[in-house]
Design a protein that fits this description.
With 655 residues, this protein is an alpha+beta fold. It contains 22 helices and 23 strands. Helices cover 34% and strands 20% of the residues.
């Protein structure tokens, strides 16, 4: 589906007033300064320079060059565009002329006539991509993908279930969105989703105002939901936003919008007509681009189906209907679901995008991870989800299995409750921070699938600052410092607290034992309390954990969003653990509309310093997203939100 990117015909703002660099997940490609003050940039980070119309031109580059030009023209176009981009002020029409010229220049020469048709049904795969060739020659059996998962969805109502991985993965495959993260091909041939830039999904045009405060999307007419056949319109998105607001969904994305609009989230959205939607910001903000790339932005759900289903009960939001139904506007629809056993996707017959290779995807519930590993090794399933770090590590040497690992900011944390003793005292929080054996946990629990963190922003995110971290001391010094702080807080004889862990996350039990042993050396007794996932999740939502172990991943690669959503006074983190630092919140709000990048990151740096000193949480590390799939499955794209888009995958029979 083609999407054009336009800019309003008004003079651009001064180049120095717009952002010069942002981070996406990929590889370093521009020699600009690193994310931390004295730490080199991560190996797989891309630092991209954006200035003035660069943003619009670069977006046009991704869409026109990578998505719509013939493969042989891509490098030529990119090289020319790269040279063109060295000029700070350009009209977008120049890009259009380049595209037209290159299309003409790269048109294939007239060759010999094709051989006569012999009548044999043999697919000609010459000149095709690997995916196209696989699709042309695949059997129906080849086009079925089987995925072993640890658990079923408790409901198909995303607003009732929360954003846990199985639900959000279902959403991104079944629900169509205005836009989606742009896709980058790395030097090694692997594909990643860009955390700060996006490309079309259902929209076919977008207009960005020159001051960056209005983003207008337009839908093509005639697209339909499945199975109802209702037309997809801009009102479907507004219904989605209204439904989330009225059902009091945990405000992760809504807080991001509030940072951008300085208003209640719904006031930032406007339906112009049935096919046109606009996002309005109060001022230019650096979080708009990552916001647009977020996997929960822009779903167009079948509003009429939900309203019709709930009409008899006076339920505008169709809550009973939503428990067992998720009408499709995306590449797949839910064909069948047997609770706690299986769920099957099939390709949406109303989908107008590229045809998925896999027209059936069967998710089978296999509760024990060891069983999922055995099924994958035996070739009985094509993918195994929710494996432990050790299991992934053991599978790396299996020739029949391909392990995918994506370096993301999925934070390994120990949230501690500021509303209850003993953690309502900052000195106790600091004492525990000194005692945690961080390197031991990363090395002996995560098996190369995680790295250290040194504060509330992981090193994968541009703008993190670890220079304020004081908690790495030699063991004996750390114990002495912790005992000193505990004595000042009135706990000279030691203390005791509960550490709640999720039974569904095997690494948590291993981490808890290491923490229990380390803290005992300073007179702290840690009672490890394993909990079923439902009870554990309820404790998070109700703020009843004294302490817990968790992995949390904000989907937007902006330091302010990481700190705001996990540690802000009116955020998810406050409900979880009672954390609140008004001074840090004010710095984050100010940074949200600070145009000068250096000034913005100074504000973020100070906010990080405040949270580190406050020991707001205990930051242990950042785990990588890992996935194990059959060696014959190709086309995997690592998206920033870690959710697999199954329509990109295909079976490569040559493997």
């Amino acid at each position: 589906m083609r999407m054009s990117v336009l800019a309003e015909a008004t003079p651009p703002p001064p180049c120095h007033s717009l952002p010069r660099r942002m981070i996406v997940y990929g590889r370093e490609s521009h020699p600009v300064s690193p994310g931390g003050k004295d730490r080199p940039p991560p190996d797989n980070s891309v630092l991209i320079q954006l200035s003035g119309l660069y943003q619009t031109i670069r977006q046009t580059k991704w869409i026109a060059s990578w998505r719509f030009l013939k493969h042989s023209c891509r490098k030529e176009f990119a090289d020319m565009l790269s040279k063109t981009m060295s000029h700070r002020v350009l009209m977008v029409t120049v890009v259009s002329l380049l595209v037209v010229a290159l299309l003409a220049a790269c048109a294939p020469a007239v060759g010999p006539e094709a051989p006569a048709d012999t009548g044999e049904a043999v697919a000609d795969t010459s000149g095709m991509t690997g995916r196209e060739a696989a699709l042309a020659s695949a059997s129906e059996e080849d086009r079925t993908l089987i995925v072993a998962v640890s658990q079923d969805l408790s409901t198909l109502d995303w607003d009732a279930s929360g954003a846990f991985p199985r639900m959000t993965e279902t959403q991104v495959n079944v629900l169509g969105s205005w836009a989606q993260p742009a896709i980058i091909e790395l030097e090694d041939g692997s594909m990643v989703g860009d955390a700060l830039n996006f490309e079309p999904m259902l929209a076919d045009s977008m207009v960005i105002s020159m001051d960056g405060t209005q983003w207008t999307f337009k839908l093509p007419q005639g697209m339909k939901h499945y199975p109802s056949g209702n037309e997809i319109t801009a009102n479907d998105y507004l219904y989605y936003k209204d439904r989330r607001g009225n059902m009091r969904v945990p405000p992760s994305l809504d807080r991001l919008v509030r940072l951008a609009t300085k208003e209640e989230p719904l006031k930032g959205f406007e339906v112009i007509d049935d096919y046109t939607f606009r996002f309005n910001a109060s001022d230019w903000t650096p979080i708009l681009r990552p916001f647009m790339s977020c996997c929960q932005f822009g779903y167009l759900i079948d509003s009429q189906a939900y309203m019709d289903a709930g009409a008899a009960d006076g339920d505008k939001w169709g809550q009973e209907f939503a428990k067992t139904n998720m009408p499709s506007s995306g590449p797949y629809y839910i064909h069948e679901r047997i609770p706690n056993e299986s769920m099957e996707f099939r390709t949406n017959p109303n989908w107008q995008g590229k045809e998925p290779f896999f027209n059936r995807i069967i998710f089978t519930v296999v509760p024990e991870s060891a069983d999922r590993v055995l099924l994958l090794k035996a070739g009985e399933v094509d993918m195994a989800q929710d494996l432990s770090a050790k299991e992934i590590n053991d599978l790396r040497s299996d020739a029949n299995v391909s392990t995918k690992q994506v370096r993301i900011g999925d934070m390994i944390v120990m949230p501690i409750n500021h509303n209850t003793e003993p953690f309502n005292d900052k000195r106790v929080r600091q004492a525990v921070s000194y005692l945690i054996p961080y390197d031991d946990i990363i090395d002996n629990v995560w098996y190369g699938s995680a790295e250290r963190s040194f504060g509330p922003v992981p090193s994968m995110v541009h703008g993190y600052d670890h220079s304020y971290w004081p908690y790495d001391l030699p063991k004996e010094e750390a114990i002495a410092k912790a005992k000193e702080l505990l004595a000042e807080a009135g706990y000279a004889d030691g203390l005791e607290f509960d550490l709640n862990i999720d039974l569904g996350t095997p690494e948590q039990a291993s981490m808890a034992k290491i923490i229990q042993s380390a803290l005992s050396e300073a007179g702290i007794t840690v009672n490890i309390n394993p909990m079923p996932r439902a009870a554990y999740q309820e404790g998070k939502n109700q703020g009843t954990h004294t302490s817990a172990l968790d992995t949390l991943f904000p989907w937007t690669a902006e330091p302010g969003y990481f700190m705001d959503i996990l540690l802000g006074c009116a955020s998810y983190g406050n409900r979880y653990s009672g954390v609140c630092l008004e001074e840090a919140d004010e710095l984050i709000r100010e940074a949200g509309t600070t145009v000068d990048e250096d000034a913005r990151f100074e504000l973020y740096s100070e906010a990080q310093r405040l949270h580190i000193d406050n020991a707001s949480w205990i930051w242990i590390g950042a785990r990588y997203f890992t996935l194990a799939i059959g060696s014959d499955i190709a086309g995997y794209v690592a998206f920033p939100d870690t959710r697999t888009r199954y329509w990109h995958l295909y079976r490569d029979s040559s493997q």
